[in-house]
Amino acid sequence: MGPRPVRVLVVDDSALVRTLVSELLGADPGIEVVGTAADPYIARDKIKRLAPDVITLDVEMPRMDGLTFLRNLMRLRPMPVIMVSSLTEAGAAVTLDALAAGAVDFVAKPRIDVARGLVEYGARLAEKVKLAARARVGHAAPAATPHREGPIGHHSTGRLLAIGASTGGTEAIREVLGQMPADAPATVIVQHIPAAFSASFAERLDRHSRMAVTEARDRQPLLPGHAYVAPGGRHLRVARSGGQWICRLGDDAPVCHHRPSVDVLFESVAAAAGRDACAALLTGMGEDGAAGLLALRRAGALTIAQDEATSVVWGMPGAAVALGAAAEVVPLRQVAARLLAPAREDGAAAAAPPPGG
């Protein structure tokens, strides 16, 4: 006998969306839709009775909004949840709040008027549901404020940091940047995220970091103390222009099914910065970033992968480890310190008195 299908409860106030999502998921032999619910109160009773493996949860519902229900659920009965969100500025903010509260992932609301795209949407939704069933949940409750590393010094200007992530990455990146000092080396970031969400994501990171975090702009110079998030739907590369690094944005084809792609960023950093770079590949589904991390290691950069125990999904970092791309495999709480280590060593060497001095 094969593995048991993933049992899913679909929670949405729209009867049409409940029917559509149920049909799309039910078309996958690895998924069984065990029930639907029109609001969180009905969902609560069905969770107790049906014991689903995964819930798809509408962000906006009557009687109790999806975010409030999610927080209650994660406090009382943690389980994998995929948020179903509108691709709007308000939807982005609520969805990022949901990921912070413990949701594994999110999908856009299905566009019922675009029949041709429903097959692709259904396949993507089914993939996320099956992945969520294996994800680690229950440890995303608010934690103590992370320890923030002390200042590095002016020698951080000669280093470049690069971070890539996907599923579970919005919170992982927030934790890493939350430990960075205000004068950390310039940092470039790719998180797989829709175009409507990336500006809100950058603003959220900026609020939780002593660095200045912005969405990257084309030809923008990379400065110490600043972090640059790839816009959703556009590749981010680093290039040399005179004596400085700059951002380059591109609309060329997706790589590893993603735009922005971590591989694209990492390979450009390997070419532009080489051994002056440090890179970390964090939690995420698939293999994007593994080949790029290997290119960085071959160029002499310090390369880090998040370990399996602290990853929501150990797809991307696991693929990098399998390739031999990661010089170090560390828990999430140690990633920032390891990324900063070469810059600190630069500063210590510069501060040391000359031999015989």
TrEMBL record:
It is found in: Cytoplasm. GO terms for cellular component: cytoplasm. Its main location: cytoplasm. Keywords: Chemotaxis, Cytoplasm, Hydrolase, Phosphoprotein. It comes from the Bacteria. Residues 7-124 form the Response regulatory domain. Phosphorylated by CheA. Phosphorylation of the N-terminal regulatory domain activates the methylesterase activity. One of its GO terms (molecular function) is phosphorelay response regulator activity. InterPro entries: CheB-like (IPR008248), CheB_C (IPR035909), CheY-like_superfamily (IPR011006), Sig_transdc_resp-reg_Me-estase (IPR000673), Sig_transdc_resp-reg_receiver (IPR001789). The modification 4-aspartylphosphate is found at D58. GO terms for biological process: chemotaxis. Its EC number is 3.1.1.61, 3.5.1.44. Contains a C-terminal catalytic domain, and an N-terminal region which modulates catalytic activity. HAMAP family: CheB_chemtxs. This is Protein-glutamate methylesterase/protein-glutamine glutaminase. It comes from Luteimonas wenzhouensis. The gene is cheB.
